[in-house]
Design goal:
With 501 residues, this protein is of the alpha+beta class. It folds into three domains: 149 residues, no CATH class; 101 residues, no CATH class; 202 residues, no CATH class. Helix content is 32%, strand content 19%. It has a ten-stranded antiparallel sheet with strand order 4-5-3-2-1-6-7-8-10-9, with helices on both faces. The longest helix has 40 residues. The radius of gyration is 26 Å and the shape is globular. The two termini are 33 Å apart.
C-alpha cells in the first residue's frame, strides 16, 4: 500500500481536475474505503517539492520514481489521462483506467504491468478488461472486482469533488466499519480525551486529501455531519497531538503537528501544510509500516546470504571452513571480498561468478565492470538508490582478530565455541559504512563506540539493525544494546556469557 501512497503523494500544477469519469462508479462498492485520482498529464517528478522527495516512502521507491516520467508518457501515448486507485478491506488495491472506445485496452494493460516499453513503477501482476475499463492488480483482486456489486457512494464522490487539486485521495469508512468500531471501542481512550466513539463514527462523514501547487501543497478536508461535529473534531486535535508526542514514533511529530494550519468552516475542518511538514508527517505516518516491510525484506536477504555461507563451508569437505574475509594473491594482497566468493551458492549468481577474474583485484579494469551488477540480495531495502547504483552494500562483517571474517584465513565450524546463535556473521550497517560489494572491505571494529553502526533501521525512537548469526538465523539488534554485549557477539571463541534476551 505504501507504494501506491508514494505515487499519490506527488507534486501538482494546481490546475482544476477533470470530472470523475462516470465509468468509475461500477468499481465502487459498499466496502470501498479509498479512491484516489491521479491525473497523468499533470504529474512530473520535477514538480515534487524537494523536501517531499526526501521523505521515507519516496526514498524507498527511488528507482521506481525515476521510471515514472517515461512510464507516464507511454500511458499518455496510449490515450490514458487519468488513473484511479480503489481499495477496500477485502484485499490488495486495484488501478482502473476508465474505458474509451478507440483505446487499445490490451496495450494499456501491458503498459500498466510493465510488459511493454519498460518497467512499471508499481508491481501489478495482471490486468483484465472489466466493464469496458482496464483494471490492473493481483489475480485475486481482479476476481474480486469481477464479482463486485456496485453501490452508490455519495460520500466518496463528494470527497473527490473538492477544491482544485490534480491529485486527490478520498477516504470514507463504511457503515459496517463504523458499527463494528462502536461495538469494540465504545469510547475514545483516555489518552485521546475520552468521550463516546460516536463523535467520530457518526460525526465524521469523509476525508479528502489533495495535492496542489504553491506554498502549502498538502490540503486536507474533513467533512463532519454538522458544524457542531466539526468543532468537536477540531477540539480533539490537542489530545491527539499529545498522545502522538508520547508514542514510539518520529520525535519531530509534536513540532510538525504544531505547524499545521487548521480552520473550521461550517461543517468542514480544513487543514493545510507546507512541503516540510507534509514530508515529516508522511514519514511519521508511514514509518511503522515501511520499517516493518523493510526489516522483513532485509532479514530475508540476510538469511539467503547466511545460507550461501553455510553452503560454501559444506563445499570444503571435512575442513568445513567458512569463507575468508577476502581472497588473496600469492603475495598476500587482498583481491575479492567474501561476498564474491559465495556467489556460486547464491541463487542464480553462478554465471556472474564465472565472469570474475579471480586472480585480479576487485578494481582491476575487468572486475571493475562487474561492480554495477551487484545482486539484489546484497541491497538492504532502506539503502539509497545512489549507493545501489554504485554497487555499494551495507551488508558488512565485523572484522577484528576474534571475528569469523577476520582476514585471509577462513574459520572452521569447530572453532566456534561461543555458540552459533551467539556469534554474528555480518550485519546491515548504516550508510556511512557501505562498501563496494566486491571490495575486500568490511567494518573494522573500532576500540569504542560500536553502537553507531547499529542505526541502519530507524525504528522510530528505537533504532537498530538486522544481524545474521552463525547458525543462519537473523536477529534485530537494538542500538541501545550494551556495547559489551555487542562485542561479545562479534567474537566466536571469547567465552563470554550473553543474556538470552
Amino acid at each position: 500500500m505504501w507504494k501506491i501512497a508514494a505515487l499519490v503523494i506527488l507534486g501538482a500544477t494546481g490546475q482544476a481536475p477533470a470530472p470523475l469519469d462516470p465509468n468509475i462508479a461500477p468499481f465502487v462498492g459498499p466496502e470501498t474505503l479509498v479512491v484516489a485520482r491521479v491525473d497523468l498529464t499533470r504529474i512530473s517528478t520535477e514538480t515534487v517539492p524537494a523536501r517531499l522527495t526526501e521523505s521515507l516512502p519516496f526514498r524507498l521507491v527511488g528507482d521506481r520514481m525515476e521510471a515514472l516520467p517515461a512510464w507516464s508518457r507511454r500511458l499518455q501515448s496510449a490515450g490514458v489521462r487519468e488513473l484511479v486507485f480503489i481499495a477496500d478491506l477485502n484485499g490488495p488495491p486495484v488501478v482502473v483506467v476508465p474505458g474509451v472506445a478507440d483505446r487499445d485496452h490490451d496495450r494499456v494493460g501491458r503498459l500498466l504491468c510493465g510488459r511493454e516499453g519498460g518497467a512499471s513503477p508499481i508491481d501489478w501482476s495482471s490486468y483484465a478488461i472489466i466493464r469496458s475499463a482496464v483494471v490492473a492488480g493481483s489475480n485475486d483482486s481482479l476476481d474480486r472486482v469481477r464479482a463486485l456489486q456496485p453501490a452508490p457512494r455519495p460520500d466518496l464522490m463528494q470527497a473527490l469533488d473538492g477544491e482544485e487539486a490534480s491529485v486527490r485521495l478520498a477516504i470514507s469508512a463504511t457503515p459496517e466499519i463504523r458499527r463494528v468500531l462502536e461495538e469494540l471501542v465504545p469510547n475514545f481512550p483516555r489518552e485521546l480525551g475520552g468521550g463516546p466513539i460516536t463523535e467520530w463514527t457518526r460525526g465524521l462523514r469523509w476525508i479528502s486529501i489533495g495535492l496542489t501547487g504553491g506554498k502549502a501543497p498538502w490540503r486536507v478536508v474533513v467533512a463532519a455531519s454538522d458544524p457542531d461535529a466539526a468543532r468537536k473534531l477540531a477540539a480533539r486535535g490537542p489530545a491527539i497531538a499529545g498522545f502522538l508526542a508520547k508514542a514510539p514514533i518520529d520525535r519531530e511529530m509534536p513540532r510538525l503537528l504544531g505547524r499545521l494550519k487548521t480552520s473550521v468552516q461550517g461543517d468542514r475542518l480544513k487543514i493545510s501544510a507546507d512541503a516540510e511538514v507534509a514530508a515529516g508527517l508522511i514519514d511519521a505516518a508511514t514509518r511503522p509500516v515501511v520499517d516493518a516491510i523493510a526489516q522483513s525484506d532485509c532479514m530475508m536477504n540476510e538469511k539467503q546470504i547466511a545460507l550461501a555461507i553455510h553452503n560454501y563451508a559444506s563445499s570444503t569437505g571435512s575442513k568445513r571452513l567458512f569463507p575468508p574475509a577476502y581472497s588473496t594473491a600469492r603475495a598476500g594482497k587482498p583481491l575479492l571480498s567474501w561476498r564474491v566468493l559465495i556467489l556460486p551458492y547464491l541463487d542464480q549468481q553462478q554465471e556472474l561468478y564465472r565472469e570474475f577474474r579471480l586472480d585480479e583485484p576487485w578494481d582491476s579494469p575487468h572486475n571493475r565492470t562487474l561492480i554495477g551488477r551487484m545482486p539484489a540480495v546484497y541491497r538492504c531495502p532502506l539503502e539509497s538508490s545512489a549507493d545501489a547504483r554504485e554497487g555499494k552494500t551495507r551488508y558488512v562483517a565485523p572484522r577484528s582478530p576474534g571475528t569469523i571474517f577476520r582476514g585471509a584465513q577462513g574459520v572452521s565450524i569447530k572453532e566456534i565455541t561461543d555458540g552459533f546463535s551467539n556469534t554474528i556473521f555480518f550485519l546491515d550497517a548504516d550508510e556511512a559504512h557501505a562498501v563496494p560489494w566486491t571490495k575486500p572491505d568490511d567494518w573494522d571494529v573500532p576500540p569504542e563506540g560500536v553502537a553507531d553502526v547499529f542505526h541502519a533501521h530507524p525504528g522510530g525512537r528505537d533504532p537498530g539493525t538486522c544481524a545474521a548469526m552463525a547458525d543462519g538465523s537473523v536477529r534485530f539488534l537494538r542500538a541501545r544494546t550494551p556495547s559489551k554485549t555487542l562485542r561479545a557477539m562479534f567474537t566466536f571463541a571469547g567465552n563470554e556469557v550473553i543474556a538470552t534476551d
